[in-house]
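Internal tracking record. Fields below are filled automatically when a chain is submitted to the structure queue. Please do not edit lines marked as system-generated. If the sequence contains nonstandard residues, flag them in the REMARKS field before resubmitting.
Queue: standard
Priority: normal
Entity type: single polypeptide chain
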Amino acid sequence: AMATDSHVVSPLFFPGGDIGSLAVHGTVNDVAMAGAAPRYLSAGFVLEEGFPLADLRRIVASMAAASRDAGVPIVTGDTKVVEQGKADGCYINTTGVGVIPEGVTLSGDRCRPGDRILINGSVGDHGVAILSEREDLGFGTDLQSDSAALHGLVADMLAAAPHLRCLRDPTRGGLSATLNELAGQSGVGMRIREADLPVREAVHAACEFLGLDPLHIANEGKVVAVCPPEEAEALLTAMRAHPLGAEAADIGAVTNDERGFVEMETAFGGTRLVEWLHGEQLPRIC
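SYSTEM-GENERATED OUTPUT FOLLOWS
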């Protein structure tokens, strides 16, 4: 398995992480979502002329620490410098290579009616942490980004539920984009429950203040899993036993809906459509 991603987050440093750790975590997770064990990373830097060396050292140190903690070494890289005003400081591209164990087949077109939908914790933390650091959207919160490498959790999940249908990390576009994408690929519907969806109070408050939907907010340490109903309990137990899945929840089920609608049972007893995000809600989020 191989994945590549470019990181252009603004600001470069935010509560719970920075562009360096984010670049490692994001690509490790992309490889892990294929069911693979990540082995190696590459790193490409595009730096703007005049970028402070102290900030570069801080980013590189963070990237190195994230790589060591994940056990996935950065084995090659490249640096380019462009004219002042051409790169907004620092951009990073990372590519990851991993090995898929024999017998593991995960794909977005494998969801079936009756399958359960699980997530490993609260949604929206990363997006709100980024917003809290933006000069024009700043507000007081101690919320931190959920940025983390998920391959250890994924390995435990695969062991507990060998017939997992698919895994996805709900990054740009949030949970709503992930569920709509899976529904479209599999030709099914999905129905989730608001009461079971983990959302921190700080995220709720920030979204209400700004007129945003937590389902559209980006995440960097979350994984959505779809599994057969008979494996849901074992999968949930395994997720909650891992530090990155302590708040895991079963949030809904796949439905037989050829229209591919994603719906949510609201806390008030009604139902609403969970639609794709229209436009760009949170620019430069990852």
